[in-house]
Amino acid sequence: MQPVEWQISTQPVEYGPAVAAMEARAAAIAQGAAPELVWLLEHPALYTAGTSAKPADLLAPARLPVHHSGRGGQYTYHGPGQRVAYAMLDLKRRGADLRAYVHRLEEWAIDCVASFGVPALRREGRVGVWVVREGGREDKIAAIGVRVRRWVSFHGLSINVAPELEHYAGIIPCGIRTHGVTSLADLGIAADMAAVDQALRHSFDKIFELPAARDSGSGLAAALTRIRE
Questions:
Q1: What proportion of the chain, given as a percentage, has pLDDT over 90?
Q2: 112 assigned to active site
Q3: Three-class SS state of 56
Q4: Catalytic-labelled residue, pool 13, 127, 142, 174
Q5: Which domains, ranges and CATH numbers included, belong to the chain?
Q6: pLDDT of the residue at 95
């Protein structure tokens, strides 16, 4: 069993090329020709429409580029200051259970933000990860969207570290009108991307239980291969 490969793009990655790269890697994983991959990146400011997106939920179509995606879900925002984690994983190794996989993605995000002192949770009927604010309001801090082909996943999750939250005003995020969005910065936590990446790696190894993906004494930083896009 090959260890999971980790890559970090140090420059924003355009959405179309990112999807093409994911599809190619997922196909190679399904054929046994490449190891699984977790790819950490940021996108330029844009909206994506999942397979369940409703036209009425795109409130400002001219505001930012809109990309139609094959992932599940509705409209979401990606942009600088948001850590996107694309997970190309062989789900046959993890029980071939899509519901359980989505649950683990949520748990991954929950465990990651918990390392910064943020208690987050999941809610029945609302995919994603939520934070309870003062007065009981619940805002989303992490979004989930996946696609699976030949039991290999791609797309994944995004965590709001310090994005421009005002950009969310151009859509109804994930079709949910009664709740807002937040970020680590909005909650008063100054976390840089390197710290978030370390937390994501540590949490991944706990949640997905992949001993082969753990470091062999060189430290987490050495396991995160940085690439320029």
A1: 76
A2: no
A3: helix
A4: 174
A5: 5-227 (3.30.930.10)
A6: 87
